[in-house]
């Protein structure tokens, strides 16, 4: 087992490894289940709603209201069968996302990031993966999108403690996707015009498996 930063462990929600990254693969089921039990599932906001298309506000208050939002986000994510959810996807203009996502090795990662910043990778670490990507806010649509297969996000946990999260493969895609949301970008914004049009057509022809907020 990696050596842990004892001071950070007592201060933060999750312990960290000897490089300072959160250990988000421990007690996943219990942590996620507890959050879902405390939370209330909310409908998902879909593409076209203004809250999805602008940068969200920084989280500055780390109290009971944020804790309830995080629980509601986990509950909403569970209902929609997602692996990541940003606050603006349930209509809340704050920089926070939750995740419950496997990596390509099958390890389950569960956690919360407030005020995330995606770190620039050195050129030698930028290996692109062009797997399919989808989004709860663009229901029933998928498209291939090239993203680095390794990602590091810095930010704060739900108590305001500084954290670092890293992921590979599918989880790296999740970290990049959710951080994008909080800066006003959907994955379809990174597609060509033709691919974006095709994704929106898929959405128009599909039926979401969860409740969504209809755009006026």
From TrEMBL:
Keywords: Hydrolase, Iron, Metal-binding, Protein biosynthesis
Superkingdom field: Bacteria
GO molecular function: peptide deformylase activity
Top enzyme class: hydrolase
Gene3D superfamilies: Peptide deformylase (3.90.45.10)
Recorded catalytic activity of this chain's protein: N-terminal N-formyl-L-methionyl-[peptide] + H2O = N-terminal L-methionyl-[peptide] + formate
Regions crossing the membrane: none
Cofactor: Fe(2+)
UniProt: Fe cation binding residues: 135, 177, 181
Enzyme Commission code(s) on record: 3.5.1.88
KW Metal-binding (keyword) present: yes
Location of the active site: 178
Cofactor note: Binds 1 Fe(2+) ion.
Entry keyword annotation includes Transferase: no
NCBIfam families reported for this sequence: pept_deformyl, PRK00150.1-3
Function per UniProt: Removes the formyl group from the N-terminal Met of newly synthesized proteins. Requires at least a dipeptide for an efficient rate of reaction. N-terminal L-methionine is a prerequisite for activity but the enzyme has broad specificity at other positions.
Protein name: Peptide deformylase
């Amino acid at each position: 087992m990696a050596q842990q930063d004892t001071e950070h462990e007592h201060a933060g929600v999750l312990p960290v490894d000897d490089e300072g990254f959160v250990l988000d693969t421990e007690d996943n089921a219990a942590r996620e289940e507890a959050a879902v039990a405390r939370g209330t599932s909310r409908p998902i906001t879909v593409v076209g709603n203004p809250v999805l298309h602008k940068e969200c506000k920084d989280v500055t208050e780390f109290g009971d209201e944020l804790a309830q939002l995080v629980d509601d986000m986990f509950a909403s994510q569970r209902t929609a069968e997602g692996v990541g959810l940003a606050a603006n996807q349930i209509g809340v203009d704050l920089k926070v996302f939750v995740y419950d996502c496997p990596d390509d090795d099958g390890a389950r990662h569960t956690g919360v990031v407030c005020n995330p910043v995606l770190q620039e990778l050195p050129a030698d670490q930028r290996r692109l993966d062009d797997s399919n990507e989808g989004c709860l806010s663009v229901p029933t649509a998928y498209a291939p999108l090239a993203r680095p297969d390794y990602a590091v996000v810095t930010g704060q946990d739900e108590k305001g403690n500084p954290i670092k999260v890293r992921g590979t493969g599918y989880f790296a895609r999740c970290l990049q996707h959710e951080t994008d949301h909080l800066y006003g970008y959907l994955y379809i914004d990174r597609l060509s015009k033709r691919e974006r049009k095709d994704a929106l057509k898929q959405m128009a022809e599909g039926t979401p498996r969860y409740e969504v907020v209809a755009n006026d």
